């Protein structure tokens, strides 16, 4: 939760951003991951959106214009993320609960595609892309157990998602390789790995995924609570470059 210093939050985010700005990453995603425990969007207060917009605006000044930046506002605050992105000149958002419903650790998350895309148009933000989690981490999907991940992907594509995100069961846990293969074979959308990618398993996902959101592996000692490690970022990107060439 907020510890009383907005300037410290901004300084920490900007320090991490400086590392990314001086590396070869293809994009940067911001989220309020340390704002624990998370609130569902209907209980989110205006100050969270205000702080996220301020932080994103400061980070956007650091990251070169040719590198796209995005935001996720936890938990399931997808309209708030779109508004933050529009105000901060970001290019995309990560959205949870786009299609179908699930029970997350914050509570029940319902599908939001219809409202979200209409809101995006309402604020003239249709240039902002929406990348959507399907069968996401930290959640129970028992209520949609009869709906496969491929069917979920199809529903997200039908409801005009710009890209799909596949995760493992929790932060830092790798996605199921068969799920990634299955979704990639059944969609025309970009498929991103949303958790658990590291320098050791990168090679096995590369043939099926169009990208990855790397968080835990980029942190010092591979712990998500730590600052970003330049050495780990550089080593990962060098490995990726080597694999792409080969």
UniProtKB/TrEMBL annotation:
<comment type="similarity">
    <text>Belongs to the BtpA family.</text>
</comment>
<protein>
    <submittedName>
        <fullName>Uncharacterized protein F13E9.13, mitochondrial isoform X2</fullName>
    </submittedName>
</protein>
<dbReference type="Pfam" id="PF03437">
    <property type="entry name" value="BtpA"/>
</dbReference>
<dbReference type="InterPro" id="IPR005137">
    <property type="entry name" value="BtpA"/>
</dbReference>
<dbReference type="InterPro" id="IPR011060">
    <property type="entry name" value="RibuloseP-bd_barrel"/>
</dbReference>
């Amino acid at each position: 939760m907020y510890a009383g210093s907005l300037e410290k939050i901004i300084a920490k985010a900007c320090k991490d951003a400086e590392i990314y700005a001086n590396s070869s990453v293809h994009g940067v995603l911001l989220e309020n991951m340390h704002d624990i425990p998370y609130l569902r969007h209907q209980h989110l207060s205006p100050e969270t959106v205000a702080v996220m917009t301020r932080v994103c605006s400061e980070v956007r000044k650091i990251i070169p214009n040719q590198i796209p930046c995005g935001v996720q506002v936890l938990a399931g605050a997808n309209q708030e993320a779109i508004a933050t992105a529009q105000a901060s000149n970001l290019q995309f958002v990560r959205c949870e609960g786009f299609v179908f419903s699930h029970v997350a650790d914050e509570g029940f998350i319902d599908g939001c595609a219809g409202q979200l895309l209409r809101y995006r148009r309402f604020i003239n933000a249709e240039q902002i892309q929406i990348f959507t989690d399907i069968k996401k981490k930290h959640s129970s999907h028992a209520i949609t157990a009869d709906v496969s991940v491929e069917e979920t992907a199809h529903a997200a594509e039908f409801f005009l998602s710009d890209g799909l995100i596949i995760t493992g069961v929790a932060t830092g846990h790798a996605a199921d390789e068969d799920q990634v293969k299955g979704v990639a074979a059944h969609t025309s959308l970009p498929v991103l790995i949303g958790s658990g990618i590291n320098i050791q398993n990168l090679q096995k996902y590369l043939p099926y995924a169009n990208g990855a959101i790397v968080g835990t592996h980029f942190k010092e000692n591979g712990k998500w609570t730590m600052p970003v490690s330049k050495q780990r970022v550089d080593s990962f990107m060098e490995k990726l470059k080597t694999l792409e060439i080969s």
